[in-house]
Hints:
By secondary structure, the chain is mainly alpha-helical. Helices cover about 65% and strands about 0% of the residues. It has four helices and no strands. Helix 1 runs parallel beside helix 4 (about 75-90) and helix 2 packs across helix 3.
Amino acid sequence: MSVASHESSQEFEQAAKDVKELSSKPSDNxxxxxxxxxxxxxxxxxxxxKPGMFDLKAKYKWQAxxxxxxxxxxxxxxxQYIAFVEELKSKH
Length: 92
């Protein structure tokens, strides 16, 4: 592991902690974006099957992750997640 990715991972872990301590809850769309970026950064492309049509929350979360499939590397998703958390910290 290179030094740059190690530093990024530490920043990513801190961002994941920081987002839980926002003074107000982000919008559902922001939460879905966070979820998709987090999953893309930690797992990579979505390789799970789509949830059933009656599990709306899981379906929206799955779609947020699926939308990033093939578009972002794990490293890029990590960077975008960190930047988005910083943006949310300034709003909440």
